[in-house]
Amino acid sequence: MDPSASSSSSKKKPVAIITIGMAGAGKSTFVQRINSYLHSQDPPAPPYILNLDPAVTHVPFEANIDIRDTVNYPEVMKQYNLGPNGGILTALNLFTTKFDQVLGLVEKRAEEVDYVILDTPGQIEIFTWSASGAIITDAVASSLPTVVAYIIDTPRTTAPATFMSNMLYACSILYKTKLPFILVFNKTDVQPHEFALEWMHDFELFQAALASHSGTHDSEGEPTYMNSLMNSMSLVLDEFYKHLKAVGVSSMTGDGIKEFFDAVEASREEYEKEYLPELERARAQREKTLQAAKEDSMNRLMKDLEIDRAKNPHGALADRWDPENEGEDEDDGNINIVDRSKSLVIVMTPTPAGQVSSVKGCVPSLIIVC
Ligand SMILES: Nc1nc2c(ncn2[C@@H]2O[C@H](COP(=O)(O)OP(=O)(O)OP(=O)(O)O)[C@@H](O)[C@H]2O)c(=O)[nH]1
Ligand SMILES: [Mg+2]
Question: What is d(CA 50, CA 106) in angstroms, rounded to the nearest whole number?
Fold first, then answer.
């Protein structure tokens, strides 16, 4: 299906594509490739791109929102005495505190774009197992139809054991995000992905591949523990594969990108039919719990105040709101998210080191004013 077809008068919401994958699987190159594919449509349908990798020095695409404009990753490492992964995680956490602004910018452009694409940090677990990764994913998925594109380095998954580890990881992400999921076998210019599809469709073929690998039988010819475990796992994964779409692409040559967009459009329907009702149910439940917690804490606060006033009537008289002081303490954290494509004037203001804790936990940053 032509991705630009959705830019008709009855405008559908754009689909958010979250690219996730092991380090070096080709996420950023894939984002660049789908970006150029969308630009080459007639009429061109440029997507809205978010780079969430604070540590990358060069991205092969032009991001509309780039985490590096908001958070200075080397400074985060320095100020908080962190290593590279702690630095990425903290940078992502800080960025997440401003994600409402990001959503605001995305929503403003929702009428004009068909796809919103997110490139995630190289260390997969930083995004998939962190609170900020979950908050970002949930926030995006609550406002737009969302799919996860799980990028796989095909040449590196030809060994059955590696293939299985990768699939188990994909399974854990599906379980965590509960979003429509597309397996993207990347780098098919180097290694065609048909072997993977065969293993996914017929677990006996996978078990045969497993048996042909050395180390699967012990000295007495019995299957090793690992071999038996993987055989059993392949049966479990068989069920998992039934809910997935898999495409082979080459981000280098552009092969398979159209098939990827066909899978995205099919996932949009899946999202609307299956995921959205579930999401709305979960949201209503969350709001109910939150409301109950708010009421409970408000009741306790009122009781405490009554006791306090009874004990100290003079103090209660002095404890009054002064309208003249209103607004003095307002401080929005001094960080603004920037839509690069809309920026007119760029003012770079490095926050002096040492003031980090004084601005509500914000880090020294580049602030770009539109
Ligand atoms: N041959 C080939 N190489 C690819 C393809 N896609 C990506 N690469 C190469 O794989 C390497 C890693 O690509 P990136 O796009 O940086 O991968 P990434 O997943 O974004 O990496 P991190 O963000 O650092 O984890 C680069 O050298 C790319 O040129 C592909 O389809 N074919
Ligand atoms: Mg990358």
Answer: 9
